[in-house]
Amino acid sequence: MNPNKLAYSHGPGAAKVYFLTGWATEEDVNTGKAMSGSIARALTEFMRYTPLKFGNCYRATVIKELLSYRGAKLSRQQAAIKLVDFDGYEKQIFDELIDLQPSVIVPLDDLALKTVYPGIKSSKLPPGRKSWMHCYRGSILNLRPDWRYKFKQPVCVIPTYGPVSWFADPAGKCLANIDLHRIIGAQNTFNETEENWKLWICRGIDSLKAFIERTSVGSPFVAFDIETWGGLPWCISISFNGVEAMSVGLLGEKWHPKETLLVWKEIDKLLASNIPKTNQNIKYDQIILERFGFYVKNVFWDTMVIQNSTQPELPKGLDILTSIHTVIPYYKDEGKEYNPEGKRAALQMYNAKDAIAAWRVTASQQKDVAECNQQELIRDFVMPSLQEYKRIDTRGIQIDIECRDKLLEKYTDLYERAVATLQTLCGNPGLNPRSPAQLGVLLYEQLKYPKKTKVSDEGVVSFKTDKDTLDDLAMYHGEKNKLGKTGLSILRRIIVCRKLAGVINYLKTILHPETNAWHCTYTMGGTSTHRSSASKTIDRIIQVESFKNGKLKMSEPAIGRSLQTITKHGFSLDAELWDDFESKNIADDMRKMFVARPGYTFVEGDGSQAEARGIAVWSKNWALLADFDRKPNVHAKTAAGIFGIDAETITKKTPTMPGVGMAYYDLGKRIRHAGNLGIGEFRLAQMTHIDIKECKILIDKFHQVDPTLRGTFHAEIEAELKKSQSLTTPHGFYRTFFAEVNKKSLKEAYSYLPQCTISRHTAFSMFLIRAEMHNRWKDFRDDYLWFLVEAHDGLLAEVKSEWKERYLEVFKKVYERPIDMNKGSLPRDIELVIPCELSMGENWYDLEDVQV
């Protein structure tokens, strides 16, 4: 250790708060002081308007010299730490703490946290966790026990994200601000942190009844949570007050069968009662429980969904919500490794903690919702919508297996032919375009494209061959490779092969084994724009791979896939470049395999240019708003203005742009979309395969034709961000933008208002349509109507055939309800009506337009 190149601890001797980082920065060793330079400036500014000033805190770093590696790769960090005298540095921290006797220690990274907190120093990071700080941030922890006895009073440890983390994720600064208030409050707290709850394990029907009778009196709601293994509910926990919780075994208990039956009946009675229910991701628990005959009534809250409704910019896991809304220390990995052969009591204690956490988070969120005046939005719109998403998840879409197999045969043949052409072009009969390693060698070592690499957590360098990288090479470098035009042809053929491989993967999606239906799982809290997201289902096909040493090794491939990404138009191939393809439209026919069940009809309703109409209002472009309902179509007019052709000659399919193969109508639509949302030329080039320089010219032409976008809509968005860092939609959703106002954050802001407004208008239509059907016709039943796909601006439903005409009438009335645009961040004195386009048919591909 070089004493002239060390960052020493410093600060007031009477400091109650001790900030600690893991290792010194270059600024630290240059000044000889820990946490100096940019970190000190950031924390000083961060704490300026709080009772706690950074200058009044002690500052230290565990490793006081520069590490040979100071990046984010964990394995390389550990290797670098082994090269220094870590034990010696750790003892210095201990001696400093004994001399100083602070009240609060604040670790700002993983190494600092491991130094002062027990239990994680030698253990591996839990699966799916990016860092220990991600787990424990915001928790109020006890100092490691082998140090604690030397202190005159208890010392608490409160980890939080430091400035280095803020630079990578601006939302981390918001979480650090929440933690700072805890740090300030803990300065004068001299009690050991204790578990302020009571956790119970049910021993039978008598203990369950006694718990419910004793704790449910006067309770405003009940929180529950289930733990599953292999899709089976092993236990359920309940809490009526956020202080006590009981975990009740549902499967695997060694009770008498009659005792099990009585317990199940009592749980069923509770879940079916009118007391309001809350949970984290409650839709999952509902679906699992309903399979076993438990029906959950009066769901009024979902902590994950509410988080997305009130703070969409922050993480939504229960661990994060617990750290924000409660003082419960991090516990979320205690029950992760359970299997039926494991310790049941540990799982049930973890299960009970989840109910406690969900109850407390709900109580805290209710206060936040009230302060933001969002009670009506949550109660009357958000939570009713959640039940429609649950119905989507459980229904799925029927697949015509014969049609699916024909499509699979078709695209497998196209793929094999495309691969054969690719192999011939590059002179490699064994080339596999799905192999990143082989493609890396071909692109970077043989064709000599500029090398694009990535580094794994273990420090292994490999070539990048993902979709964006391939598009980047084609657009920016094109023929600038060893083989010129042939090299570009090889690159384009790779891109097509990868797309065809993606189509094949979709066609091979695992269907429900009993019904041959395609399922997916929707998440209301999926995106920061409040739009839903969809993914594979919660179900797995459990397959035994081997039996060795008395243990089963199983794989669990997921069933289903997102239905939001099933393309309607596919992608086009230009006739001049792809003369070996009979059809220039790829994957546009995938929807043929989705068919209505017997006795039902598909009815699809789409908002007509929904987001674009909203943007026209926010841009105060009233002439454009009127043009949406006049012929020729707005997208045709957009293309005409940009390319100098007659709008009357443009249809959805013809003419096409030479050398690109895309219809001018579609180009107009994509260019308008890019201009509306501030999308740059690079992304437009990806969407159209037009040269990136030409794309910039096209975007500039678009804004010349329509200057109101930049002059009004974009300008007012930027002004609003600079003023308040937030935006509010007409429905009352809002989002805070933590990042500085720059090109990237502005693009996110431009898309927030239109995407949130239209997607939630569509989502809320589902339960409003069902309610209207019930109100109009007393003989209407819920199983006459199943929504199958929510696609942000459209809905696909499966309707009992004899009810389809009535459904069409109700859909039009509900979807075309006005949106009050006078509310929100950019108020406009107008009620916007989005006209809907309706179609019907027996399969998703051959839908015919209908007029109502």
Furnish the topology, listing elements before pairings.
Blueprint: E1 17-23, H1 26-31, H2 37-46, E2 58-63, H3 74-81, H4 86-100, E3 104-107, H5 110-116, H6 132-136, E4 141-142, H7 145-148, E5 156-157, H8 163-168, H9 171-186, E6 198-201, H10 205-215, E7 222-229, E8 232-239, E9 244-249, H11 257-271, E10 277-279, H12 282-291, E11 299-302, H13 303-310, H14 318-325, H15 344-371, H16 375-395, E12 397-399, H17 401-426, H18 436-446, E13 453-455, E14 461-463, H19 467-476, H20 485-507, E15 517-518, E16 521-523, E17 533-535, E18 543-548, E19 551-555, E20 571-572, E21 585-586, E22 594-595, E23 600-607, H21 610-618, H22 622-627, H23 634-643, H24 664-676, H25 681-688, H26 692-705, H27 708-724, E24 726-728, E25 734-736, H28 743-776, E26 785-790, E27 794-800, H29 804-815, E28 819-820, E29 831-832, E30 836-841, E31 848-850
Helix pairs in contact: 12-16, 13-15, 14-15, 16-28, 17-20, 19-20, 21-28, 23-24, 23-26, 24-25, 24-26, 25-26, 28-29
